[in-house]
Amino acid sequence: MVNHSKPFDIIVVGAGPGGASAAIHAAENGYSVCLLEKEPLGITGRYKACGGAIDWKMVEALAYPEEKIARVIDSLELHHLDGESYSKKGEGAVVWRSVFDKYLADVAVAHGVVIKDDEPLVAIEKQGPMYTISTTKEKYQATYVLASDGISSPTLRKLDWPRFPREDLILTITQEMKISKQTIAKFLGHSSLHLFFSIKSLSHLGYAWLFPKIDRITVGWGNQLIRINKSREEFNLFLNMPFVKDLLKNSTTERFKGHLIPVSVRPQLFKENVYAVGDAGGLVDPISGKGIPYAIESGQIAINTIKLCENKGVQYKQGHYYEETLGKDFLQLLREKRVARDRIYQNDQTLKQFLTLWEKHRSSEIVRRGLI
């Protein structure tokens, strides 16, 4: 094992949107940064089980190239299996996470970030003011560590941080299907995403989805982990719905993957110069499962916190400033949504009430105004 000779200011573990964006922001602020990724990025990036829907404002904010977009969308079609449908308008895009994440990683390299991919973290220890991270290939040192390595976060697990309660975990199943453009247009339209709901017959605490890309459809289903008996059989209930079955009858399966997402904020978000970012911190919308914008923003807030506390000479206040800024931006809202989610999913009647409201209002407005 080779020791990297020069310590970094910051090591970011995990090259997803939160980690890469944090690394870019840190480099822009003059920090030396190492971005560690357990999987090989290669030329095309690494696959991530994710629908890949993002708001158009994010496309613009990240200067994301339009040629890398898999589909431009203008509506979210919401279907309850009792027969009701709702249409929520809004501009956005669907991206392949492999392409999206690789784009951000390439931007990070252009900003001077050192990326080490295909290097799983195997150990982390604090030695004085520095952290030493050992991977399968080398050792690296830094003053600060950003854990952006997902819900199971090896970084935080090896530091003995508290884990997420099982009741706050959602199991999702993603199946990537190759299909003709003509079939997508016939069944799903040219610019819509489709979500399906039913507590009684589809998901006790979640939903299913069809996210079309160019000539692929990301088919997904999610439910609260503790409520699932036989995940494959429950996922197949969605696949065997007449509409979905007709849509996919001439398609071929290219990937099938399960993935956990958190739906509550981790009890601890900072300790001794280590920050939990994105999914690693449970910074995911408990109602929609949306995580990319929170990952990006939390990574940038972590870097801003480091800079602020260094400039003021109050590094001991990092945890306070981090949570305070997260709270002003979205942390408190996520906690309120976690409580509201249980009200929404009491039964199919309350779920339909929410879908009716969601058609015309943002979920944050519904929750903050107590509309449900």
Structure in words:
The structure is a single chain. The chain has 372 residues and is α/β, with parallel strands linked by helices. It has two domains: 2-46 and 99-164 and 265-345, FAD/NAD(P)-binding domain, CATH 3.50.50; 53-95 and 166-262, D-Amino Acid Oxidase, Chain A, domain 2, CATH 3.30.9. 34% of the residues lie in helices and 29% in strands. The protein contains eleven helices and 17 strands. The protein has helices at 17-28, 56-61, 97-110, 154-158, 181-188, 231-239, 242-248, 292-312, 318-344, 348-358, 363-368, and strands spanning 2-3, 8-13, 33-36, 53-55, 71-80, 85-94, 114-116, 121-127, 130-135, 138-147, 169-178, 192-197, 208-212, 216-224, 252-262, 270-271, 274-276. The strands form two sheets. Strands 1, 2, 3, 7, 8, 9, 10, 16 and 17 form a nine-stranded mixed sheet that branches. A hairpin with a 2-residue loop joins strand 8 (121-127) and strand 9. Helix 1 (17-28) runs parallel beside helix 3, helix 1 runs parallel beside helix 8 and helix 8 packs antiparallel against helix 9. The longest helix has 27 residues, at 318-344. It is globular, with a radius of gyration of 21 Å. The chain starts with a strand and ends with a helix. 42% of the residues are buried. The model has no long low-confidence stretch (mean pLDDT 95).
